[in-house]
Amino acid sequence: MGEEADPNTMYAIKAELDASGIYTREELDAFVSVYFKQKKRQSHADHKALTAAIDPAVERFSILKDKDEGQAELIRGKMAAFRNLYAFLSQVIPYQDSELKKIYTFLRYLLPKLPKRESGPRYSFDDDIRLEYYRIQKISEASINLCEGDAKSLDGPIEVGSGKLHKEELLLSQLIDVVNKRFGTDFTEADQLFFDQLFFDQIIEAAVEEESLKEAAAVNPQEKFSLLFSGMLQALFIERMEQNENIFGKFMNKKEFQNVVSEWISEKVYNRLRGELSERNTGK
Prior knowledge:
By secondary structure, the protein is mostly helical. The chain is 62% helix and 0% strand.
């Protein structure tokens, strides 16, 4: 074992983030007051309140990024460091400080909305590439001797800044080849599209189970149904943010992408619900 994670580091990073001016206490309180509402009091309009609490911080970060990209990336690194430290340490330390939980939750939603960095590595493995599905396959069987040879020490997560990768970059196709050779997999570039499709399929399946949508599809043409569905669709995306942050970020930040996706999913859900209604009526 190498250097262990220091629980006090989070408080130091928190103080720096609070002093950065990227977010305010009022915005943080407004966000958590909506996010932690009791489920029976939640509504489909809550995502607007969450977005309204986050957007000012995104705008301030963008302004700082235009003026001083290095400082902006340092703050981004502090945010990611706090998020990662809390996610790791909270599993083993029963923190009683609710402020840490509030900021962690706020940063989880803020970070995907921040503009991408213009320099540094092309891929961020936290935001752009994420292992969501895997296959277990036995390649060989052997014993491993942990006493022979040398190995690098295993460190716990520690504070990070705006470090940049200076090694030669790999094309995505080359990266996939490396993964396949190292782990005996046979992934292709099309697999990422497949994983994105699974995410959309989950959204559609959740939507067709909503009773309010079933009722709306039964009495409305598709155009009016789409208007009702648009608000609920954003809530469904927010609920599944962690499953595919890449798609979530595009949906929340790129209006053209959001319109195309909304129209496509709305049509799929409407046709599914109308088809099920027609089958029930025919059965009767």
